[in-house]
Amino acid sequence: MAMKSKLYKTISAAVIIFTMLFTACIKDLDTIPLDDDVLTSEKIYADFANYEKVLAKVYAGLALSGQRGPDGANDLSGLDEGFGQYSRAFFYAQELPTDEAILGWNDGNLRDYQEMDWSASNEFIFNMYSRIFYQISLSNEFIRETTNQKLEDRGFSDSQISTIDLYRSEARFLRALSYYHALDMFGNVPFVTEENSVGSFLPEQISRTELFDYVESELLAIEDLLMAPKANVYGRVDQAAAWMLLAKLYLNAEVYGKTAK
Amino acid sequence: MLSFLFLGILVSGALIAQGIRVTGKVTDAADGSALIGVTIQEKGTTNGTLTDVNGNYAITVSPSGTLVVSYIGYKGQEIAVNNRNSINVSLEVEEQLLQEVVVIGYGTVRKEDATGSVKAVSSEYFNPGIVSSPQEMVIGKMAGVQITTGGGAPGEGATIRIRGGSSLRASNDPLIVIDGVAVDTEGPTGMRNPLSTINPNDIETFTVLKDASATAIYGSRASNGVILITTKKGSSGQPFTVNYSGSVSVSSPIKYVETFSADEFRNLIATKYASNTAAQALMGTADTDWQKEIFRTAISNDHNINFSGGFAALPYRVSIGYTNQNGILKTDNLQRVTGAVNLSPSFLDNHLKVELNAKGMTNNNVFANQGAIGGSLSMDPTQTTDYLWKNPDGSPLFVAPMNPLTQLYDQDDISTVNRFIGNLQLEYKMHFFPALKAKLNLGLDKSGSQGSVTIPVGSFLSYSTYHGTGRDTEYEQSKTNSLLDFYFDYSGEFGGHSRINAVAGYSWQHFYRDGFTKTKSIEGTTTYEDSDYKSENYLISFFGRINYVLYDKYMLTFTLRDDGSSRFAPEHRWGLFPSTAFAWNISKEEFLRSSAAVSNLKLRLGYGITGQQNLSDNDYPYQAIYVYSEPGAYYQFGNGYMQTSRPSGYDANLKWEETTTYNVGLDYGFLKDRITGDIDLYLRKTRDLINQIPVPAGTNLTNQIVTNVGDLENRGLEFSINAKAVTTPDVDWEVGFNASYNTNKITKLTAVDDPDYKGVYVGGISGGVGNTIQIHSVGYPSYAFYIMEQVYSEDGKPIEGLYVDRNLDGAITGDDRYRYQKPAPTVFMGFSSLVRYKDFDFSFNGRINLGNYIYNNVFSNSSYANVAASGYLSNRVKNVLDTEFENSQYFSDYYIENGSFMKLDNISAGYNMNSLFQDKLNLRVYLTAQNLITVTKYSGIDPEVFSGIDNNIYPRPRTFMLGLSLTY
Fold it and tell me: What is the ipTM of this complex?
């Protein structure tokens, strides 16, 4: 009898200990980043100071290749980080097929630009395309996270919200700029906005003329939301930038399948 | 072992003064068959003999003496002569041997009862002469296990592939479990080989679990097989033993790449560039063989001492080792001190068994700058050894080849790594129910690395990066991986015909690492890099296994494992991995039981699923996370620089990659297991491959995402045979051979069928920026070469820039590339031989690889481009004389070569002096030569290139070692 009750006690103690142990341990699987430089989306947008940093990344997408200088922590993958930078890729695509520049290194299919025999598998062209849409994704993410509803829910003051609204308009400009590059260089492209969520889906294709209308409407919509010419700090856009892009769009309207403006 | 048994008779022939002649026959008690070579010895003397081929013997002994009859694998007997002239003996098989166990996950199983494909290699069969890289001890020893060293640097790591790789983006390395601690295969930074934490002298066995029924118990980390390493232990009742072993070895390069000699180079410049007066003026008058300048003959030494025994009820083993290994590349050095303690006491009348394993290591490295190997091929041989290419103003000429000696001596790259691997295992046999054991295993794998790379101020080395300010890089890393296993183990017998062993438990693993890298100028004024990291992940598992054995003939195993990984979202976190296996011991059936020829025949059928989640570079791939930029990557707003915050791409639906394995195997043993071996046939299908693929434009926050897309399969056949070819008292000869065939094919890569999708570009080469030579694509093996088909002239020379227009579009573009061969061997074999003659032993081990292809990047970099460039000259590999290429043609299939080879990895000869000083001291001396012969058609230095891209790999040296082992 004594033996039995001892056995019973041992088993029940074991059961209790293990239930506690397992439950506690399973919670271990819920991890969040430990690194001070890596934060979840929620934490980032809870702090007003981070909005300017995320906006800075949208701008930096045009100039920097990643999060470490001079290289490392690349934004994109699949191509050498240096080649992958936005304005370098843009320069290659715009200039190398012309007689204004020559680049004769033996790097992958780089010479296709000069020899005018590139194909869909040319990694430099694919990279330009990736950079444009990466830039659009970055802008979409910021725009998606800065709706008035979300900002109010996060409890920001009115003045903070109006500052973030300006950031948002600038991000819309940057998105329009990259869509303009897509329209200019690629024509009928996938169309993704802040309405789409982050994932992996097959986006709708938009025609060149529809994209023209979209870029135009965006620029017209933000024209009055941006700062007056020369009023913004160095490195950020103002109304003049929107006018410049509108001018480029209108000048080439016929090329893009629209009537001359 | 054998030599000890034969000890007594080796000094036979001693005369017996007075005695009687005894004759008789020795037979197997089970079947009455004659036993050949049984030792018959007169007790207390050196007088002995052996049975002949009919099992008969004759010996003259004292009429009142005692015969000691002994035979491997059988119980010995002592028989009093009592004046008899005829004594027949029948020997019984040693039960102990039947009960030989093999280590499997969370326990052991009787070898007879094993249902999975499990292969163990014990220390007596290890490759000799290995001091710092344990993996090398079993190279070529097991079918289906391919081990390729990364090169010839001291303590260099090795890549292990079991049955081909089942993953693409995730790790293909097997899980390594050392005495019950599943270690981090990635290892600490600043260390060449994570496994060199273990001193090869301390290792008792390597056990490889190959098929899913064997590995599934390790479900979450077992897709690429499991290697269990067991270290040596003391045993209770063992007398105190001290063993010292030491060796000295001499390594030297075997072969050099053929470049232009100084005179040939002068001739080349004078003729080919005759009109280039600037180039003529740059030529020097020296005669420097840069390859001979950077390499050396390296001397290394290794010492180990261990103590073992059973002190009262406490079996123990303690060992200390010191290794000082020099590389053949100048400055390269590894120093290592290892210590291991193993205690295995029992308490409570053997109800509580405790096993404590602790292994510590401290490792100091000097990493030679391996850039010098490539540098030595292009540096102008007409210049003196201190020559540096300069601009007219005396500043460094960046584009010119760097003096390889400057590369070696100006860069000081050192590290110190400390690592501890240990565990405490408690096994409690229930007092009230001894068939049930509770086991607790607490393990810890902790390491700390510190390292620095410095280049002095003003050095020409890396001048373009550091602007002459010098370089001062410091890095540190600390890793703590902990493990808790708790499980119950039940063993029972029922009705005399069935046995059950059941295991059920829980495992918890935590992996934590942090570290930083800082690069500044030597003066500290400029910061080039300042980055740090801190990350962790967890694995939690519930597992169970049942082994059921009926009539010792039919065996059934079920395992089930439920694994949770913190790397996946809660809804995709858990993966269930089942396996089942059936084995039939045919040799135990009536119709075979009495067969003299067949001693073992076992059929094994296995099926199981294992999982993979090892994305070593990202612990949070399913979460929306933002990463701040580091200093140096800020963006200018106004007059200040703004840190940026980048949203990372992610896949919230990322989940387990699953590999299903089917295995059919046959274990065999003939002639009382004088010939043993196995045959295995397998199919491994991986689905939901964790793969990095382009994401539809604009849909994610990156252009390529890590997600579950794609399937691949490996099919293969393995065969092994080991034979005791000769077993006589004086000569004993064992031979082994194994062969493996594996084909690997990617069967799916995209979520939706896209005929235009070429695949995942991999295999970066040296030459150009971002050039890749391999591809993962559907219908082909992984890492297939992706190249252009060269057109040759009538005299067989490749025509520069002319390729076959394979897509017939009238233009030669990247779209004309085709997929050709792969770096992995189709067939690989290992062979070994071990002969013992009296006190001498002689062994050799070798390998054959067939169908492994190599891209000769050393050759493809050799064209006439920039030989006589503006302001400098640069040497070339003489292959350019064959191609006459003016510009490098990196993508030409001319550079893809068949790397099939036969290597004689090592030859060793030893002499044993046993029973010195009244049996108290055993001495062994041996001489080992490693990397002796390579037979291949490959034109490069060494055809053993795991990646298939031969780009100035650190040459594997030829090493001669003299070793000594003393046991007291």
Answer: 0.91
